[in-house]
Amino acid sequence: MQKLVLEDIAVYVEGKKVLKSVSMELGHIDIVGVIGANGTGKTTLLNAIAGLLPIKNGKIYLDGFDITTSTPGERLRRSISYVPDGSGVFSALTVRENLVLGGLIRQSTEIEPVLSLLPDLRGCLDTLATSLTAFQRRQCAFARALMSQPSVLMIDELSLGLSPIAADALARLLPDISAHGVAIIVVEQDIDRVLSLVDRAYVLEGGTVVLQGTPGELLSSTDFVNRYLWGS
After folding, report:
1. Do 35 and 141 fall into the same domain?
2. Which domain holds residue 142?
3. H helix runs in 78-133, sequence order
4. pLDDT for 154-199, tens place per residue?
5. Are strands 4-13 and 57-62 parallel, antiparallel or unpaired?
6. Is 1 helix (H, G, I), strand (E, B) or coil?
């Protein structure tokens, strides 16, 4: 059984059909990428999975259970966690407070397991998030999401606002997170970076999946290379 299954979902935003019959699957420890230009529905897809946008048509299953009409809170309790684009932290709180808040759904205040994955945060636990660098804020957002002990982690725009070195450092965390039994969906503009990370990728265009496959399969596709790597 797949961890997460989307069956022909359609989503409207302000009366406009943004997603049109999107289907995808995520295995229990898969890292899956979602690729596409701005405005193709990538963030809308993650918001729909998180329950932040209603599904007009189609179904979403988690561990075989239909969660199509579940609230965001119910999906979080069922172990779907979300790192949105931007900082994704509470700026007025310290790093420690952000992490503890992330653990409330599991009634967990034990931050050490998360810090073992993100040790750079140890030195700024009592620093207000507003004083952090962009890289530290993004690490804090990852840590806060992981405090809920997710089995599915969604990351929107992994490298947004980060230097290439910082983005690569975050990207290297994903296999370690996956190794702890977490399935990951990552949206990322840098196609080379995302293909180096994922087991499978879905290409969105015009609100629908136009291509999908392993990195090897996509890179062997002339259509994919011409349209997404060479910019033609």
Report:
1. no
2. 88-149
3. 95-102, 112-117
4. 999 999 889 999 999 999 999 999 999 999 999 998 999 999 999 9
5. antiparallel
6. coil
